[in-house]
Structures are given as C-alpha cells and as structure tokens.
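Sequence in, structure out.
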Amino acid sequence: MEQITNGKKILIIGGVAAGATAAARARRLDETAEITIVEKGRYVSFANCGLPYFISRDIPKRSALILQTPEGFFSRYRVTVLLETEALSLDRAARKVRVRGPEGESDLTYDSLILAQGGTPVFPSIRGLDSPNVFKLWTIPDMDAVHKFVETEKPSSAVVIGGGFIGLEAAEAFLKRGLATSIVELTETLMPPADPEFGMLIRRSYEAAGARVFTGRSVRSVDVSSRTVLLDDGSEVPAGIVLVSAGVRPNTELAKAAGLEIGSSGGVSVDEGLRTGDPHIWAAGDMVEIAHRVGGRRVRIPLAGPANRQGRIAATNALGGSLTYRGALGSSVFKSMEETFAMTGLSEKAASAAGFDVGTSTVSKAHHVTYYPGYEDLFLKLVFDRADGRLLGGQAYGREGADKRIDALATALAGGLTVDDLAELDLAYAPPYNSANDPINMAAYAAQNDLSGYSPARSARQAADALGQGEVLLVDVRTYGEYAKGSVQASLHLPVDELRDRLDELPKDRDILLLSKAGFESHIALRQLRQRGFERVWNISGGMAALSLQPGLRWAE
C-alpha cells in the first residue's frame, strides 16, 4: 500500500491493544497526520495478557509488561498520548470529543475518530465485594494492588470468582504463590466457551495442583472479618484474598450516547471496514461486534489478536484505505497448570446452537511417536458439518502439541477445508515431533468413516445420554488389564482379540455401542461385526478417554 499523506487529525479513544496499534499504523502510513490517543487509565500500550504471570512471578520484571510510554510514543511516532483523560461526550456533527484530564475539560476535534475503549470487568451483585481484600485483574494498577496485598498481608487462602481465562490464570498464580486456592464457577464446567469434556480436563489439572473447584455454584457474600466467602449452598470457603473475574462488558457508553448503533451482542456495530454508521468514526477491539468466520453470526470476541488486527485495519481505513476485516475465529490457547488447552472456531455446543447438523470426531493419541522418548497424550476433537463435511471448529488438550494442532485447524477454517481435506493434510513428520499420521489426520479419518457409514460413531456425550436412558448395550472391547482399571456399570466385557470366537454372546436385535481405550480397537471390532451381520452397532468416538469425562455415568465398583 502506498503511503498516505493528507495531514488528517486522527483521534483515538483508548490506548491499549487496538488503540495503540492503530496509532502506530497511522503514523507509518502518514507522516503528516496529527495523531492523539486519549487513555482513561494511567498506562498506555501494556500487556494485559501478561498480568497473571507477574502475580505468579513467572514474569519477574514489572517493566516487561509496559510496552510503551507516552514519551516513547512521541519519540518514535510523534503521537500525543493523554493519560488519565476520560472521553465525556461525542459531538458527531461538530466532529469533536469533550474530554476531562488532569488539567480540566477541553474539546478535541478530529477528521477521523477511532473508538478503541475495550471493556470493563463485571462485578456481580454480591454482598461484601467492596471489602479491602477483593480485587479484579484488568490493568497494571489492578496487578500492582493484588501483588502488594499478597506480599504485605500474606493471605493463606484465595477464592477466584469465575472459571474463564483470567480467573483460571489468576488461580494458577495464587497456587504458585502457595495460597490454598478455590475456584467458584457459576456454570457446570470450567472454561465455559469449551465443550464440557475439556472443562473437566481443566478441572482435573487444577485439582491435581491442590485447588478446590466449585462448579454450578455462586458466591452469596464475602466476609472480610472471617476471611471467608459464603456460597449459595450455605458452605463457607476460606478467602484471605478474593479475585473477581466474572466476565467483561464492552465500554459502549460514549458510542451509545452519540447515537451509534449497538449490535445484538452488545458491541458497537461496524461494517467490514470497521466503520460505524458515522462515515468519520471507526471502532476496534473488545468493544465492537464483528462477524464470526464460521457461520457469519454477529459476536463479540474480546481477544488480543483480533483487537490488534482490527486496530491496524481501522487506522488504514481512517486514513482513506480500503482494507476489509473478514471476522475472527476466536482462536485461543490457555495454560492449564502444566498442560495446555486450545480451541478455534465453534465448539460442539456453539455449532448446535447455530443450527448446524453437527458431527464430532475425538481422538486421544500421542503427540509424537511412542517409540521416541517423551511422548505425551493429546486429546483432540473436531467439530464438523455433517451436511458437507466442512470443518466448524476444533479443541485440543495435552502437555505437548495442543497449540500446534489448533493453529493448523485455524488455518484450515480460514480456508474452508473439509474433513476430507484434513485427512490429506501433508504435515511435517519426524519421530521427535509427530507421527506419520498426525492426530489431525486420525481425527479426520474417523470423521470420514462416520460420514460414509463405514464406521458409524456416536460422540461420548451421545453415548452417555443413551446409556443413562438404558437404550443400548455397551460392549467394552479393551484388554483385561485396561478393563480392570475402571469400567462402566452393566457393560459387557469382550476383548477385541476374542471377538470372533464369542459372537454368539452379542444380540443382533439391539443397539450396541463399542468402547475401547481411545476409539481405535473399537473401530476394528465394529468392522468385524458389520461384516458378520450386526447392523445396529456404533463406535464411541474417543473411547474411554472421552467417555470418562462425561457426567452422570455409573461406574462399576
């Protein structure tokens, strides 16, 4: 793109992520532009994703999180940064913004305005949240306050309200600091955007690290004198420090008061160029409503990656460019103690809610060949459209390799690939890094087998529901050693290597679900049975690795 030189006044409200990126991009495009950032807080361009890791001391230097200063912005980009300055009102007709800063109120005029005000943490209506031991974790001052309290007051216990990204990262930080930590999440599983089996895996990792986890529970009150919180079931939990991470609302007050359209998701409505309904105003970051790249529904995706890309595009278009923002996938990765969870696109539950004919394929496979030392199990799930095989999303969990597979699936989603395409992906292989058939290939093979009817499958959730209703016979084809480690009540144990000699033990007039360790041996069993006249038989996708994560199953004692 050629350099734009038109001397415009570019005013940016908000100086973190989208706003800071927009300012730097605008300067690179136009040396003659007059660029001003208005930031309500005390810091500009800081790494808010790194805040929990300072609390945990994984990041020892506070200064590492401050990416730029007003002086640095001016020195490098000749951008004026006004800190501790709040935008009070927007006069669209006069193209000016009323602001209040350390020196009082004034008006700032603009040719192009970029709104990048982000979001604000939600504080639920809970008695005692104004106590001095209650904090949030959203800004550098928030981080400083939490760190100071832990250092000076030396609490022995912590309660985190909210089991999403920030809450869980904060919980890990408290655990690393030696605090007896409890997590309280209102929904039934941790990490609500994920499918329940991944929430269960995350829960197990935190409980293994010593945390207490309360799901389907809420906090009724905080008692600073007794250093406890009271849950809605009447139980008390020790709480020397309380951190609230119960969601984020977009900062749309300025836009709403100025008459800009607010979308159904609660974010500012923008077009493909991130322009609002006003031809002189653009918006970017956590405060905007955008298109999800899978299905096109309008959503808010408050993540740093999309915010930075949106800031770049908004600045370009505010200076006369014509870049298009094609939406986001919600790709994310999360450190779950010593393991990793990552996802992209739609979860199974989100795809179902969006009206797709949803199929899933789950595998549990070593992240590289098992004969090379150091392999770790990887739990991978594909979500696809049964109508045409198109990939809709993916989730992965494990000590190694989860992020790598989700990045590949995000690329596949951007390209509109199907499970047939995934089956043919030519991914890098050497024993220390992968298997000849990557877990993505294997999950795609299983999806192809299901769609074609060659090896029809049921998801672990579908299997658990059917078993709970007594509709099916569960045939466990694992080895004797595997079966002895735990089995579902009322299942028939018939090891796959004995199957051909024991066919008379199986009914042909009843639905049969086949269960193996991870889904492979049961696929072998299914092919044997199908060729022997058993038509009502299905493989459980992901095997025991997936079924064991489902709630409500009755286990043999």
